[in-house]
């Protein structure tokens, strides 16, 4: 349901086709199932490398995968140090500080955060950046204004409705991904709240969402095309035996 994954996958498949590789798309019920499928394909010599589209906070997955000595590129932050795993990411922590700083500079008083579950580094880093900005400006960290919107359209919309139905609703919301942004626009429309006059909404978006939503959301357009292109280029370089950096950061711009 999150447009990030389809967009980054298109970029990976385009680069793979240019390079003469086939892409096997693997989805799983959980991390352990995911790992076992990877290990089976590695043992059967079906794959030469792996690109992971997200980075789990529980890095035991990486430690076990690293033992297989197969090149792995992770789109997301990787906290540990591994011999065969490198990462491509944006600076989610500092970008989230910058977004929240902007809301505070615009005079917003009750700033909420609608975030994804904290099972992945990206969600942890974005929420940590939000809270770091509040602390820097000596703003209270009100737990009722920090809401987990889950992974689905339904859970994100329910969380957005919960936020905007509060007796003292927020005057600004920081959304940590495009699903949360879309849910806030819909929940605001249901309550007759004009964006940005009655409610300021910022967050992580993409070109498609900026085209569809009116007014276009402020925040950061995630460079999905570049993330997919760079991650696949790094993987093919690793497969060819070329050295690549352990971590590559893709620059972003606050809009």
The secondary structure category is: alpha/beta
Regions with little confidence, pLDDT below 50 for 5+ residues: none
For the secondary structure, the number of strands is 9
Average pLDDT number: 92
- The total count of helices amounts to 9
Q: Report the C-alpha radius of gyration, rounded.
A: 19 Å
Sheet having the most strands: 5 strands, parallel
What does this protein structure show overall?
By secondary structure, this protein is α/β, with parallel strands linked by helices. Helix content is 45%, strand content 15%. The chain has helices spanning 3-19, 31-43, 60-66, 92-105, 121-136, 153-164, 178-190, 207-212, 224-239, and strands at residues 50-52, 72-75, 85-89, 111-115, 146-148, 172-175, 200-205, 218-221, 247-249. The strands form 2 sheets. It has a 5-stranded parallel β-sheet with strand order 5-4-6-7-8, sandwiched between helices. A 4-stranded parallel β-sheet has the order 1-2-3-9. The longest helix has 17 residues, at 3-19.
Strand and helix layout:
Blueprint: H1 3-19, H2 31-43, E1 50-52, H3 60-66, E2 72-75, E3 85-89, H4 92-105, E4 111-115, H5 121-136, E5 146-148, H6 153-164, E6 172-175, H7 178-190, E7 200-205, H8 207-212, E8 218-221, H9 224-239, E9 247-249
Parallel strand pairs: 1-2, 2-3, 3-9, 4-5, 4-6, 6-7, 7-8
Helix pairs in contact: 1-9, 4-5, 6-7
């Amino acid at each position: 349901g999150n447009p990030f994954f389809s967009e980054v996958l298109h970029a990976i498949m385009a680069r793979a086709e240019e390079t003469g590789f086939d892409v096997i798309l693997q989805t799983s019920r959980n991390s352990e199932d995911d790992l076992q499928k990877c290990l089976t394909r590695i043992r059967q010599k079906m794959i030469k490398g792996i690109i992971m589209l997200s980075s789990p906070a529980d890095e035991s997955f990486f430690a076990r995968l690293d033992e297989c000595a197969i090149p792995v590129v992770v789109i997301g932050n990787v906290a540990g140090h591994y011999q065969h795993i490198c990462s491509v990411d944006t600076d989610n922590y500092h970008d989230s500080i910058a977004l929240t700083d902007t809301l505070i500079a615009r005079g917003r008083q009750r700033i909420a955060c609608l975030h994804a579950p904290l099972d992945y580094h990206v969600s942890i880093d974005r929420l940590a950046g939000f809270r770091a900005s509040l602390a820097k400006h000596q703003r209270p960290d009100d737990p009722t204004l920090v809401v987990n919107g889950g992974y689905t359209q339904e859970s994100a919309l329910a969380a957005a409705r919960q936020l905007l139905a509060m007796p003292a609703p927020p005057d600004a919301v920081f959304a940590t991904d495009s699903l949360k942004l879309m849910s806030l626009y819909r929940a605001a429309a249901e309550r007759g709240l004009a964006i940005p006059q009655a409610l300021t909404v910022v967050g992580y978006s993409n070109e498609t969402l900026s085209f569809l939503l009116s007014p276009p959301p402020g925040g950061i357009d995630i460079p999905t095309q570049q993330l997919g292109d760079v991650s696949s280029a790094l993987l093919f370089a690793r497969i060819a035996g070329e050295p690549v950096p352990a971590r590559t950061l893709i620059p972003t711009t606050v809009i």
